[in-house]
Amino acid sequence: MLTDVKTSPAKGKAREDIRWQSNWWDFLPLVEHIQRPVAWTTSSIIFVAHSTQPLVVARLFPSPKQFSIPSPAPVHTSTASYEPPTVISVSPNDHWLFAYFPGRERDGVGCLWQRGFHIDNWTVKEWWGFPRGAGVIAAAWAGAEREWVTCPDGSTSRLPPRGPLTPVSDPTLLLVTQSHQLNVCYLRTYLPTLRFMTCSLIQPHFTSENPAHTPQEMPGGAKTARLCIRASIGFMHSDSSVLIAMRSQRYPSDAMKHATDLSLEPSDLKMPTPVPPPDEGPAMIDWETWGEESTIDLCEVKLKFDAIQMLMNLISNPLPPLHCPPEKLTNLLFVSTPPFRSDPSSPRKDKTSLRNHPPELASTYLVATFLDFGDYSAPPKSEVTVFMVARNPPPTSIGKAWITRQVASRSFSPRVLTFIAACLTPSISRKPSVIAALVDTAGVISRNARHSKDITVGKIVVLQLSDLSPDPDWEDSTLVSPAESAGTEWPVSISLSVNRALVCTASATKTTIQVLPRLRSVTDSKDFVQRSPLVAPLVTALLSRKSIADVSHALSLRSSSNDLLVETLRGAISALEINAKISSSIASRMPEALAAVIEIYRAKVQESESDDDRGHLIALWQNAHDMCSITACAAAFEECRDGDSYDLDAVWQLVCLSGWIVNFLEHLLKECVALADISDTEPDTKIEPADHQDIFSWDSSARAAYLPSFDTPILLHLVHPFARANLCDIVSHVNRFHSTLSSLTAKGESSHIARDVLLDLVSCSGVNLGALESTLKDEVCELTSIPADDVRLALARSHPVPSMYAQLRKVIQKIASSSAVDKPRLFLKPSDLVDGFANLSTSEQPGKEQERDVVTKGFLLKRGPGLTCVRCGYRSEIGSEAGMGGHTSIKWRSWEKKWAAHCICGGSWIQRK
Prior knowledge:
The chain is an alpha+beta fold.
């Protein structure tokens, strides 16, 4: 509700503010089980239920691109017979998707989708029915991959597995139904169809694997029907058991509804009073037994694999219920923290002390939130209750395997708690905590902020589970809402991003993206992970090959400083180098570092307001992308190598790669020739602090005065060790390929044309490949004098830093004075000599690079839908048969298949319509 509030006049005019107010009915969707589920995948796709139709809508974050998932056959043929999905769940590896569609006066339908190579390609694997009164309430996936955690020094490790191991099934889906049953749906290895196992959650039960589907049994009673209305599935570290918590509600049975209808006074309806049969007395109506129960049921489930009989077994063991407040339950959540040692920062070499002090046991908490509406005259009051669920250690565990106790309870009046989520930080010393959204019930929209799209309606905090107090290690974030719907549409479901940087909230009609709290940075800390709160999630995402879209979006916001961006990238690069040295299983992670530079700077372009900054940021991420392209081209030449020669069946493909490389070398050498006349004077010591300053904070004139030319991004290829090594490698390959075609007689018309094309391309470029190769290799050893931290900083900024200027000046002068450059041919092209015929130019037009295939570097034929990379935005047509003529090279096809799942920059593919 919005009302006008008059305040003190300003300059003779009355300033009117708008006051918004929440009412008790605005919070009713939280307790009436109005569900609009949302799920955020590891590939940065947000799945959300359609507000009115039985559809699953997908959005590729952060772009506005949306697409619909194909519906199962019953839903597709009879859309009006089904409700929008009430449960959406995505497997941790992002290969499987499940959704449940309730039926309208009919059975519901559950559907399992499988993802293809492209992240927007989902096909129906199988669908099956659920009887009325036995619909799906909660879903979880067993057998998830172990999580990565980051230590303050940048090293990473993997946590113990959570939940039951599933060595012979993938996927393994656990479903809790309204009938207090657990359905296990799984695909056995090498079997094409789903299998099912079902067990009861309210009484001990044992089920062995059976290919046949076990029919659901409807619970019932003489007077009431007891249905599960909310459930949570919890997995624990280093424990194969599954904990399930359920909240139930009693509904009148059909017989009781009939008795209730008979008890109504029919005088006003002018209908005769029906007389009950003489052998049946009037049913007793106990209104107090209807409604939501004041207990939470617990059950332990074990999913075991019998290696001898090669069968899976399902065992359930109900635990004593938990007594909780009688108010309406809004959230039910298991929070499991991994075991950690009391001193995680202790040196690793002290193995004796680690053996004498074993790791602490993992702790599991059950968090429940409630709303009390009182007399429905004011907004409700929220309350949080935390229970600890732990195994009873021997010998006291005889007869009682689990112990439960309440550890904390708190009310947040006058604020209202709307949603909670597990706070999973990628740190080895994690504390048990939850993320909670506390909203205001009233507020004022000032006149100055009236034209703003979003206003603050609350805050998101991190609460310690020990006493539900705010965690001092975390900074609060603001909760925003559109001004026109302030206080009226609160989220009914949420989903955290894969790296816990953002959260997607879904109300009845809209979805919004909110920023989550961040760890407080310690500016004077020696550990770069503590200096930048986003280093740890960025590193763990790169190592686990998950999307970093949420981290790049958080860094691209205007509220995030440019210093934070550079510091995060430098810290991530350092951490990747540390892990490459510690673990032999982790190879060089420089491609992952380049991927982070590309995505973060490209995301920053979208938020930049200045044209100068936008142009500079585009040059930065494209420079990092050129490093990826050079690495991929070198790998292609190496793959197609045949002794001292190359596979001539791939001659046209290698010519395309050579053309792109020569074009890149021309741009690089033009910069070198233009800078060759710079004096040998060393940079003034006054600008040395630029090593630790953010170049984006300078205006264009200051940038030109202090860094007139040496900050050009393409020059980084000459002084960065990784880029310089790859540049030498690719120049050597192209030079050898050029010499091979020059010395061999063409075997056919196609090879003859390819030979002439390459010879003309190189001779007209003004680049002497042989001389350039020897010049680059002579200077490689001198790059070791550059400090390692400056090398990381240069890659984080994607351009040379002042400590590299002396070496860069030396390399530039040596290249410009050598025979590697033919200046007339480098700067004067035949197309430049054509007078008056601009449209007849044979050179590439500006922007033509985007029309090249990002993988093969050939021109796009556009004969099919093609692929688009979600990270760099470039397109490709790999895998299509509309390639170039000639024989198909097996070696080239082998290299091309490496990019079927992702782009050369590591980004995922989407199909371009």
